[in-house]
Amino acid sequence: MDVVEAFAARLSHPLDPFQREGCEAIAADRGVLVCAPTGAGKTIVGEFAVYLALSRGTKCFYTTPIKALSNQKYHDLVAQHGEETIGLLTGDVSINADADIVVMTTEVLRNMIYAESPALERLTHVVMDEVHFLADTSRGVVWEEVILSLHESVRIIGLSATVSNSEEFGRWLNTVRGDTHVVVSEHRPVPLDQWMMVGRKIFPLFEPGSPGTVNEGLFRTIDRLEQGSDSGFRSRSTTGGGKDARSGAPRSQDRYRPQGRPEVLEILRSRNMLPAITFIFSRAGCDAALYQCLRSKMVLTEPQEAEEIKALVDAGVEGIPEEDLQVLDFRRWREALARGFAAHHAGMLPAFRHIVEELFVRGLVRAVFATETLALGINMPARTVVLEKLVKFNGEAHVDLTAGQYTQLTGRAGRRGIDTMGNAVVQWAPALDPRTVAGLASTRTYPLDSTFRPGYNMAINLLGLRGFDGSLRLLERSFAQFQANSSVVEDSRAAARLEEELLGAQQHLRAELERVLPLLPQAVSTAATAPGAPDGPGDEPLSAATAEALALLEDYIQLRLKLTAAEREAKQDKARGHRQEVVKVLNRLHVGDVIAIATGSRPLLAVVNAPAKHHDDPRPWVTTEKGWSGRIDASGIANPPVVVGHMGLPSFAAKNPRRAVKYIKESFRTTQFTRPKKMRLVPRDRGNKEVTALRQALRDHPAHAWPAAQRENLARLAHTVARKDSELARAREVVATAKHSLGTTFTRIIDLLEEMDYVEFDGHSGSRVPRVTPEGVRLAHIHSEADLLIAQCLKRGVWNELDPAELAAIAAMCIFENRKSLSGQVQAPTEPLEQAMAATLRIYNELVADEQRHQLPITRLPDAGFSLAIHQWTAGAPLGYCLAAANESGAELTPGDFVRWCRQVVDLLQQINKTGFDNEVRANARRAIDAIQRGVVAIGA
């Protein structure tokens, strides 16, 4: 029996064709790239590489993008091959590290390569699970570093979600890794049904037998719901107004009320569609959903299951102090699990997330409210996936889900061997066009684009391993350069086309100008008839009159372009001022205020149920006189509301506004409020001095006196010339950047590192060879976005006098990035720490000046928002005290955030311990690590 058949015989189901194809390619000593939908079973191909290495007596490393996935894959492989055969390395966990099969995060493998670790001996295969993480903006560079730096004899098995440019990625792998076979499958072993929930009904998204055609019955139901619209303003609330699903006309749905989370789960249970994962794109939203279910009477478990859940939960939190469990609201969380529902997001304690994952996989928890982090490869499939919205906040703005994100999320639906179908359910809300959902559901691929870029640590490691020329050659082989080079051909063609179009536009303009020259004022066509100089290669000489007219026209067009830009900027300033005016009003609203909102000819009255939560994006909850209830925001209001009175509201009107709708409608009916007869729809235009001056300069320009017909025709042609010229300049810049960006950046980095004594050059001018200094060797151990800043602080000894807790605090300052900033002030608890923080900021400012001088990306500003919290934790304070300290410093952290940042501080302290800069600093780093790893930080790692 050959090795593939022997492996297949161990499985509980036959190999799918794409799995067999991938396994046979690996058995033939080829690299493999497998692109298949989430849940299709592509990890089987990776597991075959493990089986093959064991059968041959060689090594296989299995890499994943996140520690949770590494932990899960480790336990999966232990179950298949035994504890003595499998190891785990995730930075903060090391189990059986010398095993022939080791599961690790990709960063761990990158560090092993740079350290030329002996563990790489006999390595024949590396599985890179979720290899599409290569496109991740913050961590994707690590995947390319590994692919480029592994010994050529190692075969890479890349497992990816379906990407639209898999052939391009495969060609690159062939170029840099040798023979690589690309396997692409669109097949899902468990088919996926697409649904839309409208009210209490669930409709198929597509017509039966016509996958591309949206269900007409769904449209008819939505049309009936839309009757009686009258509020005329937009809201981000799911019950708010928006645009008609077909016509795009503004409207709202006062009669429509979406189902609450408990009701949705009951509907799914009645249709045998549990267990379900409901994706909610905020941590607070997941927690709110959990507590909505807790307040209901819903129970999804049997009594004996509830007891089993409680026993598993209690075992999972063993070792966490009782006072910390109280801070974590443990009792209520445990009760929710016992009733069969849970939340899952990165803000939770890792131990809590692991418990939820185990209970869900066991089938004891039937409903999970999760953020999109659950879609990152963790094996938690469900029968049904529910999406409440198709919009998420990306850190800067609310943006629509991409087709790739939709596919990744809904890919969780359908459990192989359990379900015959998976279900993707999107909850309808006003302004949601079913055809938008259909478009997302029909698009199953997304592009994979490189985010590779050289940094200080990478540059120093590459230089040490490969030398300067070898490093440049490696950068030239990156996927980023591969994509750039392949695009250069198209960009160059585009530039050539633009050159031809520009020349044609210029010739057309000059011919027309010469034709109408006699019609222009005499000042332009005076007696000068001597030929002018050609304007460019191949151009005919221009007469002096034509050249003068052309110069006037070009100056006139530039003036018009400046005016257009100034008017656009003035309009944007006006819109910003308008929004600020609305924001100011919304921030001043109080519970019970009755406001008038402009809606066409007759303002609409509404009462405030709950005031604004966030100063920058105020979204007070209001209920209108017509019965609509939801949040309003500045972007959806035509003009600032006007307060016209006050209404006394019962206490439950703020806590549960929809319960008070009938009361509020009746109050509006029985109470007289003065309704404005009309409202100013836009702020008054106070004028713009720059625009006024440019308009006057345009009127005074000599070319403005030309006959209007000839002037405007010439202006149109001149605008075309200017536009083509601008497009050509941009195209040429794109080509130049694509050709030189990576190598140029690397060279600039080496120049800066030479100035700082991390690199020195041997030889004479013209033959200088860069070499890594002892200080550079220390820098090579620091893997952080602030690597050079940290190395500079260590080299200059500004952290030498810090004790363990102070060292942890200063390390946190270099890596912490505040996710949600509050008003607060950082107070250094000790004088040595205060001095070290000030010195670190001085060194940072010097570094920024050097980076600007060398035209390099700027290192992120240190953030001390977590420093006080980690200082107190390292000194032995309880969890609640440390969370309060973070809050006082302007950082609002969940327990999960706290643990995650503690572990990142530990990771940096471990790197500092390896640098060898100062023995006392290294010793204090070890002491700080031991002090941090306790309680909630140590549990569930």
Automatic annotation (TrEMBL):
Annotated segments matching region Disordered: 228-260
Gene Ontology CC: Ski complex
Family annotation (Gene3D superfamilies): 1.10.3380.30, P-loop containing nucleotide triphosphate hydrolases
Biased composition (Low complexity): 228-238
Record protein name field: RNA helicase
Listed GO MF terms: ATP binding; helicase activity; hydrolase activity; nucleic acid binding
SUPFAM superfamilies assigned: P-loop containing nucleoside triphosphate hydrolases
Example GO biological process: nuclear-transcribed mRNA catabolic process, 3'-5' exonucleolytic nonsense-mediated decay
Organism, scientific name: Corynebacterium lizhenjunii
